Input
Amino acid sequence: MAQAIAFYFIAACILGFAVLVVTTRDTVHSVLFLVLDFLFVAALYVLLGAQFLAAIQVLVYAGGIVVLYLFVVMLVNLKRPPEAHEDPHRRTKLGFGLAAAVLLELGAIAVYGSVNPAAPMPATPAIPVSGNTEQVGWLLYTSYLIPFEIASMLLLVAMIGAIVLAKREL
Amino acid sequence: MIDQVLIPLLKIVIVLNATLVAVTYMVLLERKVIAWAQSRLGPMRVGPYGVLQPIADAIKLMIKEDITPVRADKWVFTAAPIISMVPALIVYAVIPFGPTVSLFGRKVSLYITDINVGLLYIVSVASVGVYGIILAGYSSNSKYPLLASLRASAQLISYEVAVTLTLVSVILMAGSLSMVEIVNAQYNQHVWFVFAQPFAFVLVLIGGLAETNRAPFDLPEAEQELTGGFHTEYSGMRFALFFLAEYANMIVVSSVVTTLFLGGWLPPFPNVGALHLLYYVPSWTWFLIKSFLFLYLFIWIRATLPRYRYDQLMRLGWKVLIPLAILNLVVTGIVKVMLM
Output
């Protein structure tokens, strides 16, 4: 019961702040709502018993990436309201079209899910370590070793790319 | 009921109040120590030797007029001091002041909670604290605070990388992220990690000074260049919150360094049988003594060293501390695998 109340509260906050992120006029406020959103996602992870993921979510997203967003927003100073589009109706139409497409997709998934319900998850092989962090580490280095390494290669490539772009005449 | 609700609540109340009192008296200690370093007496008027000075300061700050600049971003301006204070306080939830002891016939642990990701929790909560400074500078709508907050955020992000990388080598040594387990690992391995990881100790100490905006890295508050720093437009209690947050962060850094490198609540040479009588001193006393040493060191450094220039600060962070942290991590990993 308490879990359900907590879940619905957190879910409502996540959705509400997500709406505020895209509807707020002031760019800095929008970034701040994004931080709040990430913090509530972290709370959702805690509710699911994934403390490691929650801490990483706060550290990487709320504390790292969004600080850089804020930095950029403050440096370019977008205080003035966005200029009106030449044809506001066209934008509204495009928005409705995109929203309808997403709604259609969600509906399709819901219908498909209720027609053929997912097979029960195969029992995961027993993990020989206890503790949240240890289990995540164990899985990353056994079952998900190749995706993990590919992800780190991608990050390395992105880092080298950024350096090459920033320092053209090295 | 008592074990699940009453005792944790009592612990939270005690820790929070003790922290706030300690923070206000840190201000007095700092003024006194710097005065002694400069052959002055420091505050002497309020109470004997000025011991009631913090209370006088608090009353002054509370009854001062609280000004919000007209062009300021009001909501953000109000939230910024709160955002910098809250992370500084909730970190104390995982700091172990002592082991589990029996008190009035009941098992009571001298920490609020021991979570599996303790150290990671501290690092991530501290990383949220940056927002207080950035938003204070931005929302004041004034150029010096904005410059200061840009400096501060660049500094905090750079040194956060170095400190976190260094902490990884300590985690490798301990084999756990839980603060209590890290202290126990130092007991089981018969060594305080300051001797096993001297490089990491120095790196974390330097990084900690930069993370708390203390001298010689107090560029965000360089009053000669910035008319006061990111809190120029704040007055009264809201200014006091920034001030208290800085001191609370100092206490956090001291406690974390004590836990990670000086064996937390353990007495000196915990495994030497001849020194077993040191266990008769309560464990939290050792913790407080060790933390106090670091707080004193911070003030001492402030009274001694001149401030870094901004480009020197960035060069030190990125070109010295981060490579050293990575090197330390690699060496620790190799040695650990070889010893296994």
About this structure: The two ends of chain B are 44 Å apart (CA to CA). Chain B touches chain A at residues 73, 75-76, 115-117, 120-121, 123-128, 130-131, 134-135, 138, 146, 149-150, 153-154, 157, 160, 176-177 (CB under 8 Å).
